[in-house]
Amino acid sequence: MFGFFCIKTTYLSLLLSISFTLISLVSLGQNAILQNPEQSGDRYFLAEQYFRAAQYYQLALTRDTSNHQIAIKLAHSERNQFNYAQAAEWYQYAQNLSTEFSADAAYYQSLMLKNIGRCREAYPWLDSLLNSAEPEFRELRVKAQQLKQSCQEIDLLSIGVKSFDVTLLDSTVNSSGYDYAPVVMGNDSVLLLTSTRFAGKKKISYRFGENNANFFAFRLQGDQYVDTSTFVSKINTTASEGSACFVEARREFYFTYCGNDQHCQIYFVAHNGKGWTDPTPLPASINREEAETKHPSVSVSGDSLFFVSDRTGGHGGLDIWMSIRAAKDQWLAPVCLDSTVNSKFDEVSPHYHSQQKVLYFASNNQRGFGGMDVYAVSDFTNREARTRRHLPMPINSSADDSYLALGQQLGYLASNREGNFNIYRFKKNQNQNWLQFLSGIPVLPSTPESDVTMITPSDKIRRVNQVDTEAYDWIWVNAAQHKRLSSGATRFILNSDVNDIQMRQYQQSQRLDTGVQKLEPMKTLVNVGSDKMLLLTKFKTDSIDTREASIVNGKVATGTNQEPLAEQTIELRGSAGELLKTSTTNENGEFKFVNLPGNSTYSIALTSDEALDTISVSDLVLQTKPEYATPQTFEPIYFNFNQHELRPESAEVLETLAKFYQSNPSISIEINAFTDSLGSDVYNVLLSEKRGEAAFNFLISAGVDRSALAINANGVSTAYTSTNAYVSQQLNRRVEFEVFGLDRLLPEETTTKILRPNIDITQLLEGTKMTREELSELNGRPLDVLIPYKPIRIYKNEITDANSLFYQIIDIN
Fold first, then answer.
1. Predicted confidence (pLDDT) at residue 650 exceeds the cutoff of 50
2. Which domain holds residue 599?
3. Fewer Cβ atoms within 10 Å of its own Cβ: the N or the C terminal residue of the chain?
4. Which residues, in sequence order, are CB contacts of 702 under 8 Å at separation 6+?
5. Is residue 62 domain-resident?
6. Do 574 and 699 sit in the same domain of this protein?
7. Would you give the DSSP letter of residue 137?
């Protein structure tokens, strides 16, 4: 059936390679050849020692040459060593041995053909798999369809003209071993790389059959690379080191260390002015004994760390994680980046370009050209605007392309497009930024690239163009309070060098009457690279009656005509710089925060893409109002497990809340978002933030003024419980609404309950005294099917035997 596209390599040559493997194993004195070589291969495969596993599978095939399952295992071993051509041969061998169609072999055979640039030969395999009707092949058919679409895209894109040259470096840099993970240092003058070339190491990596890896460094002199590996001599050991990054601002070097028979971990060395310190592992918040931790990339300011790990809590396979530096040698618990970056496949080799806020990485997801492909997430610090791009040829090819490294004008890439992993170089035009260049986007000569933002000098604006760790403190952010970790933004705040005494004197002089005072605009700018934050004001509530909650209002404008700055995120921060609430400006540039306790210190900050030197802040007023002291609670909404999309009945609740606001436009609404107790603290904070934003966006679209809303992403909640554990978790997957500024009671006509199992629609209608139409309208969907343990809205009228219909909700606050 498949004979018409047999691989040209004959079975004789394959069997000859098995004979050589037998000789090799005998020469190594392996007693296991007298036992079960297939079991030995399985053991090494599970240990990810694919080179050794392949040796034993080949030996097993000499004893049972008709066993197609062993041939498939051998093909898997070669695939995991990136030996795609050999893997394709063994998948073909397995198919010809078997009288039955092997979906597994067909899929991976197609993948290997794609990875060696022979997509057209893969189509018959893919079509055979897609035409199969067996239920157990369903998942493979989905992957096969994606693979076919990817091959078709490759066929179309390969017709285009290459936009720039990617050049293979000569034998001075590249070797007969694996050469990968380039690092650019010293304004393009130094190239550091990882290589398995022989460097006196006798230990062999049985994962890929290569020497253990070492660092090698080369200085670029003219067009020639000169070996200058003195710097890394202290780091290299008999184990494997590689995949590094250098933070010039902090004189820190981070790298991957893989001890013999141990999981990889991230180490670092720092220059103390006299020399380099001894290699030290990052703390347990980053490294895990039970998981791989590798491929570090640190932002130019040294406060954000990206790395690769297969630890639990990811999307599947290897994922890219991120952590924020809390102090000099302290890192917060990392968070796994979202689906814009990660997938159920492998994502590796992150490279964060701080100046342009672009995260580059490699992935072997099925939409690529083949093997690993390089992707870019632009606008990384803006979660709403961030975009994932699949970089075109010639950066990507049908082989494995990864480890992108970008300097000032020179860029490097690791690829096995010519059979072995080697380093390739390319050079961008001076008038292009890297993302434009790599994406093939032409730019006009009049738009030079600049890594330093030019700001008009002003008495009230402070310019900082480099990191000064003595003058500035990194914000200490508890994981459960870090509301915006997923944005990847560099977050820092001025140290207490603002003259608090003068500020308080000014505030006292500007006091209007009891409980009302003007605030002094600060407009203090911190700028590191292209990360900017503008402090609008700083104030205390110690002069406010502690029995009442404070309210702060303001207005921001921009440009020579001082146009209102609308739809901009405003942050309320505490005395230690921690993020407390977020809000946005309305169409008039106005913002408002309510419910500020007394005897506390606050600051208000703005992050914007506007020219910050043209921004002004005015009408800053701190006051109290009795009607804002005690909030009222509106009906909460609930979410499905690990989801932030609005349920149908939640949309009905929000529609009702929006209509109530339109009748009472002076109120303020705080959105308090929560999750259940499953998952890590950091992940749950991010999930709660997404849930809060889902409610926020709906209310905005329904006509609620932006300045009337604020989001508090609280993470885990255990406030509500029930006699059933599933119900308790469902109750805590919620968003609550606190309404401030009302001089009358909120209407409470509806409520949300959790339905018990085995309740039919007739029982529900009789017990709630409602019609089917009323229930459908309240819940935003036809109630033909009742789902137990899920939220359902009802009217708050007299319910007959409520405990038999719904679970009892217990507030344990």
1. yes
2. 472-626
3. C
4. 654, 655, 658, 659
5. yes
6. no
7. G
